[in-house]
Model the fold of this input.
Amino acid sequence: MTAVSALEEHTAEFQVDIDMVPPNVRLGPDVDEAYTERAKQLAAEVKAVWLRVALIGPERVTDEAAATESACSSLAGRVELLMYRNAIPQSQVRPQACDSYRRLRKSLREFMRVARAALEDDGTEGNDWAHSYSYR
Done:
């Protein structure tokens, strides 16, 4: 969640679709090479964490972790496309970046919900995944 939150914070300007902002209002930092590289680095950190979750977590958590990792990767990709503003019309890419940002937020909320449920599972109903892994 920390890795995802860092990417979410870095790309927070995509909370708002540019079509909803008056032309004289500037949104966040310019999407330049440094901004893009940071987004890609943060998405890579999420992927590294996701791999650990996928290996040891219960299926319901790994499924949501995969969805969250995919959303992070998608957002980083859209940010990278925005860097090429002279080659690709921003009116096409910016809404996609905003959609990716919203997908990331939704996915993170769902991941937190299932992760919390898994952590609270004490195994009394036969779903004690943590116990089965603790002896390996």
